[in-house]
Design goal:
Number of strands: 8
Number of helices: 10
Distance between the termini: 40 Å
CATH class of the largest domain: Alpha Beta
Order of helices and strands: HEHEHEHEHHEHEHEHEH
CATH superfamily of the largest domain: Nitrogenase molybdenum iron protein domain
Strand order of the largest sheet: 2-1-3-4
Shape: globular
Largest sheet: 4 strands, parallel
Structural class: alpha/beta
Bound molecules: zinc ion
Low-confidence stretches: 1-39
Helix content: 25-40%
């Protein structure tokens, strides 16, 4: 399914002549309908058309939703944009509710970068209705999503560095189109950052190669490591919360199945994320009685670490994650 697009609705194709009047009404309604990004998209997302937006003498006003998107957009935009990142480090994008100041920033924005695929499930509907003058851009446009069950797409693409390189290209294109007078700056910033990301990817591969293949098995809080596992040669054996959303609650049956699986496969390491409550993980730890020791490996998955920490930016976050996996699995 490659036809899911942002900002466009599919209209029913009615062909019966008797329904021509109704068809015309439907077409009119569809073509005048407002763009919507709140529908659950499941296929490859596309970049919306972007026209020049920056006003004379003013920096382009840009909003980013998650801390990770904000970091990447900031690297490409640099000092040429006026950037507001809505979520602070450590904030879970699945449950994030916008504050009044967020809505003001969205109302004034020229461009709003979101992840797409319903990551920011409590936020995007508000941005859609309030950011009327802004172009809402899914940074993940062009990336083939992994399926996440129930027809949903897994939104956690940034845990594969190659996908963030795609984000950089998308941000470069959009900023250059919205603010052509600074396009050369965005091109140069993107090229420099891309080189850093390519080095990051090579470094991650070298670090993770030290983990024996048999130990490259991950059990996670929620279904967020699929892209990471695919890119860097891991298997996701199970999730505490069998959903792409951290908001879902595991049932007693989910937990007992997971304990059974981990016991059967001799897995004694569990990945927990910095944005999640790790109470569940600790309960699981008590249940895994066959393990001499249960390693809880804390990864930054859905948000950056606090300012000043090693994970305060995307590159640092990914290096910290690789170091934690090497320490927990070797
Ligand atoms: Zn998540």
């Amino acid at each position: 399914m490659n036809d899911a697009t942002v900002g466009r609705r599919k209209c029913p194709a009615l062909t019966l002549l008797a329904l021509l009047g109704l068809l015309l009404l439907l077409l009119a309604a569809c073509s005048s309908g407002s763009p919507s990004v709140s529908e659950a998209e499941t296929g490859v997302l596309t970049l919306p058309p972007v026209s020049a937006r920056a006003e004379e003498g003013q920096r382009l006003r840009v909003v980013a939703t998650t801390s990770i998107i904000g970091d990447v957009v900031g690297r490409v935009g640099g000092g040429a944009i006026d950037l507001t990142t809505l979520m602070r480090p450590g904030q879970d994008p699945h449950s994030y509710q916008p504050a009044a100041t967020d809505l003001t920033a969205a109302a004034d924005a020229d461009v709003i970068f979101i992840n797409g695929w319903n990551l920011e499930e409590a936020l995007v509907g508000d941005l859609d209705s309030i950011g009327r003058r802004a172009t809402i851009v899914p940074v993940s446009a062009g990336i083939e999503p992994l399926a996440a069950g129930e027809g949903a797409a897994n939104p956690h693409v940034w845990l594969d560095v190659a996908n963030v390189i795609r984000w950089v290209e998308n941000v470069r294109q959009v900023l250059g189109a919205a603010d052509p007078s600074n396009a050369a700056t965005y091109d140069a910033n993107a090229a420099a950052y891309r080189a850093e990301l390519e080095q990051l990817d090579a470094d991650l591969r070298a670090m993770l190669a030290t983990i024996p293949p048999a130990r490259r098995v991950l059990v996670t809080n929620h279904d967020n490591l699929g892209y990471f596992a695919t890119a860097y040669g891991f298997e996701v054996a199970g999730t505490v919360i069998p959903s792409v959303s951290a908001l879902a609650e595991p049932t007693a049956k989910d937990l007992s199945e997971l304990v059974g699986l981990m016991t059967a496969e001799g897995i004694c390491a569990l990945v927990v994320e910095t944005t999640a409550n790790d109470q569940l993980a600790r309960m699981l730890e008590r249940e895994l009685t066959d393990c001499d020791e249960v390693h809880l490996i804390t990864l930054y998955t859905d948000a950056l670490g606090p300012p000043g920490s090693a994970a305060a930016d995307y590159i640092g976050m990914m290096r910290a994650n690789a170091a934690a996996l090497v320490a927990g699995l070797t």
